[in-house]
Amino acid sequence: MPADLHVHTTFSDGTDTPLEIAEKASKIGLTAFAITDHDVVDGIPPALEAGKRFGVRVVPGIEFTTEVPDAEIHIIGYFIDIGNAGLKSTLKKIQESRHKRIHKIVEKLNMSGIDIKAREVFELSGGSSPGRPHVARALLKGGVVRSIKDAFNKYLGWKGPAYVPHYKLTPVEAIRLITASGGTPVYAHPAVSNYDRIIPDLISSGLKGIEVYYPGHSKADVKRYLEIVDKHGLIATGGSDYHGKMKEISLGTVTVDDEVVDRLESAGGYSR
Ligand code: AMP
Ligand code: ZN
Ligand code: FE
Ligand code: FE
């Protein structure tokens, strides 16, 4: 039975609400999906509600944007306890940094002669986990750029004139935080980071899975990560990284068997 374990909602940079996702999931025959918004868990309670309504199992999750000096590494936590105090205080710190960063990005754009207001960005983000995609959408809406890609290429990308970093955990910190919150840490789309040399460190810090199946992964990537998973007794996960209507990837493009969901659930926290 198919489960899509990587989905973004309007609570981060997705364009579908949790309710719309649950409805779509039931329509296309998914038995489960995981909410994995960037650095925020606010979409989980409404998603659990919506899942009940449409008869689809909802996995509470989060995708942390973490960094090492020369790469960005995304770590997903499945089955985290969203009431965990340590998790809540870290998320608050990241959210504050993401908010301040929007103001800084807008200032930089203004200095480049672009008329954009922070309020316009926050209107598009709903306030929960504002990011560069929301700035890109505001620029598109204001007619400053022709596409989201254009916005990243001209202004928001790494080394672009309006690039501003935000506070990030290291991958090891994210793995520890997820584990302490009762969750199961998984390395998301490793081929996108192209930083396999970090995997041994992640495993010794408590990593329990690798997102082997992913739209951007080649056959060779899948084979390589499956070998690592087998060698270390990890869980092979997968998902579409669905972001809604604005991107080409549809919900359920990549799925794994329901059995993976059970394994992720029982691997939560310090259990081994
Ligand atoms: P942030 O977390 O605010 O730094 O934004 C990162 C998000 O921006 C990623 O998860 C992608 O969805 C999106 N993104 C990054 N680079 C690009 C790009 N070149 N074109 C379109 N979207 C991008
Ligand atoms: Zn995203
Ligand atoms: Fe990601
Ligand atoms: Fe994602």
Describe this structure in words.
This protein has a domain at 96-156: DNA polymerase, domain 1. The longest helix is centred in the middle third of the chain and has 27 residues, at 85-111. Helix 4 crosses helix 5 (132-141). The chain has eleven helices and eight strands. The chain has 272 residues and is an alpha/beta fold. Strands 7-6-5-4-3-2-1-8 form an eight-stranded mixed sheet, with helices on both faces. The site of zinc ion has 4 residues, from loops.
CATH architecture descriptor name of the domain at 96-156: Orthogonal Bundle
Tally of extended strands? 8
Provide a count of the helices: 11
Largest sheet: 8 strands, mixed
Ligand inventory reads: adenosine monophosphate, zinc ion, fe (iii) ion
> What structural category do the secondary elements indicate?
alpha/beta
Helix content: 40-55%
- The stretches of 5 or more residues where confidence is low (pLDDT under 50) are none
Mean pLDDT: 96
Secondary-structure element string = EHEHEEHHHHHEHHEHEEH
| Basic shape | globular
CATH class category name of the domain at 96-156:
Mainly Alpha
Estimated share of beta-strand residues: 15-25%
CATH level 3 topology of the domain at 96-156: DNA polymerase, domain 1
Short description:
By secondary structure, the chain is an alpha/beta fold. It has helices at residues 18-28, 44-54, 85-111, 118-125, 132-141, 148-156, 171-180, 190-193, 199-204, 219-232, 258-266; strands at residues 2-7, 32-35, 57-68, 71-78, 184-187, 209-213, 235-238, 256-257. The radius of gyration is 18 Å and the shape is globular.
